[in-house]
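Continuing the batch. This is chain 6 of the set; chains 1 through 5 are on the previous pages. Same settings as before, nothing changed between runs. Recording input and output for traceability.
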Amino acid sequence: MPAQPIQRPVHLVGSVPLADEEAVFRMASAILGDHLRRIPDGETGVRTNWIGWQTAVFARNPSLEPVSDTGKAYGQLVQYRLRPGVAESDIAFDNLGYADAAIASYQTFARLKKAGAIPATTRFLVCLPTPLAPTTAFIERASQTVVEPPYEAQMLAEVDRICAAIPHDQLAIQWDTAVEFAILESVGWQSHLDDVRAGIIDRLVRIGEQVPADVELGYHLCYGDAGHQHFVQPKDATLLVTVANDISARLTRPINWIHMPVPRERDDEAFFAPLRDLRLHPETELYLGLVHYTDGVEGARKRIETAQRFAPAFGVATECGFGRRPPETVEPLMEIHRDVVRDESL
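Output for chain 6:
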């Protein structure tokens, strides 16, 4: 008998530039169906440029003031700092908007699922930036130490709100881990961290532990997508593997998936060889972001062929969310994912 085909799952990283969450849920379900274990709401509307909308949160905070001479770091918008005379104990954040958006989108998800438009086993995926990301991007270095803790506290309070409002068996939460890699690679934003690796892993573990064990949890590891460019091209997958192993070794709750980017130009063994050292727990799915719109199914096949020499079983994804690409490319890009996972000549 012929071998049974490999059923590779598909992961949508987060942003999808369609009109609204209903359009995202319907298109993703229609094209990818059971290959998707989780569907994000697309981060549509004001959230379309990842953390860009959080600048309004900092702008309205009375403890902060804008900095006029920030320079032009990768993907950076205006920065803020602590106002003179403000005590550290007075800094607080009230509503970041993430819980409001997730709870509203879930109502659409639940309605469509009840109507049969979303597969019964698919979960609602909430994608969140790590608290370190907005505070590093939008707060000047000298003020980050005092601003990050209250911002993190509010983000985790919103995680609690999300988990209280949405049934846990319907929910998955992803921490988007991008700014961390710019810091680790010593490019892009300036960070207040002294021991960079330890500080980053401490934070990734802490925010992961905040997610209840019966809610699915994943990490999207990222090298950036501003202008469809990485802030630096990874030499190979070594740093991605190191971070994934560090989180896996310390987190006490399950990690349901980890996503890693694969640059379009890399279908060589040198990039993928570090995946031999990946130490994930049995329940953790690996997704490789090796699908690229510009070289389609053929390019993805080449990268899959090389990756599977070094990696455990894995699903496929793009390197980052779709949010910065033209909306008319979304449907064909999803179709590329579908065709890749249906191709079993590998």
